[in-house]
């Protein structure tokens, strides 16, 4: 990922190319703090001109003073309210919880950076607001609900026929590719999952919560560290060793693909007693050339079976244990857009058990699980708490990690 300064610089370039301040700003050295302040003032002005810097009063009015009736929900970062701006725009206002010790300037820098992120498949961040300890983000309002609400929480999943599910997968892949490689600054999402994929009234998927790690950095001094992902979606190497790369997002994307096709939630999978989780089940059936058995029965009438099989294989490639074997999003988008003549054979998915330290009651030592699962060699974590949370949501024989109420981890106590 680019450093904050690099991103700041990129944003500056972007900004400058459109602005008559270009040459003025170019002449300013970045090192002087007086000049930095001046630059920030300039950015404030540009932001105000672009109406990205919302006044607190405007957001109070838009949300009827953050009235409970306006509340859309509450995630790990704080509550989200529906609102209407005085110019008629429908917005979603995220009121960040005040646990982060991040300063105003840093927050504003990151928010400004992220408000330049614009893609059809990414929720548009319209602006932000800081007032004393209050930090708010203003997003475009996305009218339909999040993907998980259609897929898991009701009988609404019939509304998601094959074409829609296919298009959602393609849209999310394009949104992720944009965040990884095409935005002005590399953004690793870290929390791709159904509830962070919002659907608009035309079923176009939009990735939400991007860049939250930048806006809400972990604060080591706090009791509750900022969550870094959600159980069931996190890549093993990230979960075990904190190795964060774009491939961690690819893994989460693969989980979402398999969930969309099967309508089974990885973190609470109980469909097949012989498979600990959705990924293992899908892989097992794939190896037996019974791939289509993972398909949600609701899809039988609408699905193109060849496409289903292809997407399962792509999903399995994304969740492979070894991050280097996973395709990058560029390749995923290519694979999705035209039927590949040749597609690699997926190796086993990132599974719990391999070189994961198992808990033995009454001891603090551990034993190693079956060894044919991991090819990445990155699972030998010595941190029992970390090592026992699973990327696939199965923790039965392992020490249960403490998750917060959103299924996020870690919560340190
Ligand atoms: N731009 C938006 N438009 C419409 N609804 C939104 C928007 N952003 C968030 N929401 C809704 O607000 C609720 C809370 O969202 P938020 O992203 O804070 O948490 P979450 O995704 O449910 O959980 P987590 O923080 O664990 O990812 C969700 O129900 C989501 O659908």
UniProtKB/TrEMBL annotation:
Compositional bias annotation for Basic residues: 403-413
Pfam families according to UniProt: PK_Tyr_Ser-Thr
Name of this chain's protein: Protein kinase superfamily protein
Low complexity compositional bias, start-end: 362-397
InterPro entries linked to this entry: CR_Ser/Thr_kinase, Kinase-like_dom_sf, Prot_kinase_dom, Ser-Thr/Tyr_kinase_cat_dom, Ser/Thr_kinase_AS
Keywords for the protein's UniProt record, in alphabetical order: ATP-binding, Kinase, Nucleotide-binding, Transferase
Region Disordered, annotated ranges: 343-413
GO MF entry, a single one: protein kinase activity
Domain of life of the source: Eukaryota
Domain Protein kinase, first and last residues per copy: 66-342
